[in-house]
């Protein structure tokens, strides 16, 4: 792809450039997808009664919610390389809205499980968001751009925790039966996805120079090779750094997804909170993404200024270790107040670690960006599925959280093992300094 015209600054209050339009619409689309992805979670106590679900069935539903995302993320990254993020995102939003409407119409545990499984595919929206901001922003700000777009998008999960119970309560207050109200409430994110699909198609382009199809027709990009996506995927698979980041992202984003799925129910069951209060408590974790993930990317960019790529890796190690220790604290909290404080503390480290991971991803292999972004992103969902099976196996939320804390702390070692050759670091440093020069010239 053409390396020119990448943005060296982030102008948050501007939609004048294709870079900033891609930035704002990618986080907005991701926010809506994340909202739809986790809209069921805070309503599970109601849905549990509707279908008379057992604890084992709820565990299956939580696993289903993230399992398909693994495959979807592996596929969507190479598709971005081949067709461009504009087509990939528009298609995902349109197709992904169907199971969102379907889950609202479910009449049994089996049909609900099927649509919950299918909804997991929209979790691949994260990879497209990271891909699109990676090709739009220069090395000096790409970490901040990636982390901010992903963080604001991730906040959709926290918004779902807070707003879905309130939406259901409003419908019940208007006279809608609760058994019908949760279904109407779940239609909302599906409609929002259709709106975002139109906005994305209408107002974005694949990269600063234009759409991939137009650039290929003009000879500015290689002709569209049907094997391009597969080649990107194979190249990424052969890079050991990709798999180390696969593990670290499973340790941070995987835990984030797991907490989204179980937080509200945990507060209801362990501390006896009402559904609305538990939803608000759980929402505090998700809403940290509004700033914490961006903070992780920003700090990574700042550290890279002095310590280069090695500094980005050391920061990631420290953040994941802090997350693991905070998770152990949360697992042993005996009061609601202490649990919320512990959750916010380890949540801060979790979100920052997610941002720091994707502040490193664009530098792993520029020739296989889609493959790298897809594999690392899939690692997050592998972590979530593993946590779901762990929960199902031990049966106790507290014991599961303790074991997760230990596993996360150990996974931090993978961040230290990410190393780059002197040649690779020198090349990236030149690109970084070039971006700073362009920024200074523009100023």
UniProtKB/TrEMBL annotation:
Family matches, as Pfam families: MFS_1 (PF07690)
GO cellular component, one term: membrane
Any coiled-coil regions, as ranges: none
Major location (coarse): membrane
Subcellular localization: Membrane
Residue intervals passing through the bilayer: 21-45, 57-76, 88-106, 112-131, 152-174, 180-201, 242-259, 271-292, 313-331, 337-361, 368-389, 401-422
Domain Major facilitator superfamily (MFS) profile, chain residue ranges per copy: 22-423
Topological category with respect to the lipid bilayer: Multi-pass membrane protein
GO BP: any one term: nitrate assimilation
Keyword set, alphabetical order: Membrane, Nitrate assimilation, Transmembrane, Transmembrane helix
Listed GO MF terms: nitrate transmembrane transporter activity
PANTHER family: HIGH-AFFINITY NITRATE TRANSPORTER 2.3
Family named by the database record: Belongs to the major facilitator superfamily. Nitrate/nitrite porter (TC 2.A.1.8) family.
Protein name: MFS transporter, NNP family, nitrate/nitrite transporter
Species of the source: Fontimonas thermophila
């Amino acid at each position: 792809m053409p390396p020119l015209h990448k943005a060296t600054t982030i102008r948050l209050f501007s939609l004048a450039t294709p870079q900033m339009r891609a930035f704002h619409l990618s986080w907005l689309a991701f926010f809506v997808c994340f909202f739809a992805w986790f809209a069921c979670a805070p309503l599970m106590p109601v849905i549990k009664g509707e279908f008379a679900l057992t604890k084992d069935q709820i565990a299956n539903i939580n696993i289903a919610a993230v399992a398909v995302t693994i495959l979807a993320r592996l596929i969507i990254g190479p598709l971005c390389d081949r067709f461009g993020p504009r087509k990939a995102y528009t298609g995902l939003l349109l197709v992904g809205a169907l199971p969102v409407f379907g889950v609202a119409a479910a009449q049994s545990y089996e049909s609900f499980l099927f649509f919950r499984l299918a909804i997991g595919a929209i979790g691949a929206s994260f990879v497209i968001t990271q891909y699109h901001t990676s090709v739009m922003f220069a090395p000096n700000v790409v970490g901040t751009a990636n982390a901010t777009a992903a963080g604001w998008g991730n906040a959709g999960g926290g918004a779902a925790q807070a707003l879905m119970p309130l939406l259901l309560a409003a419908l019940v207050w208007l006279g809608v039966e609760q058994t019908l109200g949760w279904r109407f409430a779940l239609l909302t994110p599906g409609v929002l996805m259709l709106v975002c699909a139109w906005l994305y198609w209408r107002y974005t382009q694949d990269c600063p120079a234009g759409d991939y199809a137009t650039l290929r027709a003009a000879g500015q990009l290689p002709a569209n090779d049907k094997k391009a996506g597969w080649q990107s995927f194979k190249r990424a698979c052969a890079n050991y750094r990709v798999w180390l980041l696969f593990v670290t992202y499973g340790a941070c984003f995987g835990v984030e997804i797991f907490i989204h799925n179980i937080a509200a129910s945990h507060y209801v069951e362990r501390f006896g909170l009402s559904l609305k209060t538990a939803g608000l408590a759980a929402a505090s974790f998700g809403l940290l993404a509004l700033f914490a993930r961006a903070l992780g990317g920003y700090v990574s960019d700042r550290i890279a200024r002095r310590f280069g790529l090695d500094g980005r890796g050391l920061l990631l190690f420290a953040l994941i270790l802090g997350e693991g220790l905070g998770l152990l604290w949360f697992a042993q909290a005996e009061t609601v107040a202490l649990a919320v404080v512990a959750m916010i503390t380890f949540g801060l480290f979790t979100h920052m670690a997610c941002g720091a991971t994707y502040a490193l991803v664009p530098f792993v292999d520029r020739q296989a960006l889609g493959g790298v972004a897809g594999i690392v992103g899939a690692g997050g969902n592998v972590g979530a599925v593993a946590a779901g099976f762990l929960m199902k196996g031990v049966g106790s939320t507290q014991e599961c959280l303790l074991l997760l804390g230990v596993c996360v702390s150990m996974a931090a070692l993978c961040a230290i093992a990410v190393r780059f050759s002197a040649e690779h670091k020198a090349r990236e440093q030149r690109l970084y300094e070039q971006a700073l020069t362009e920024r200074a010239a523009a100023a």
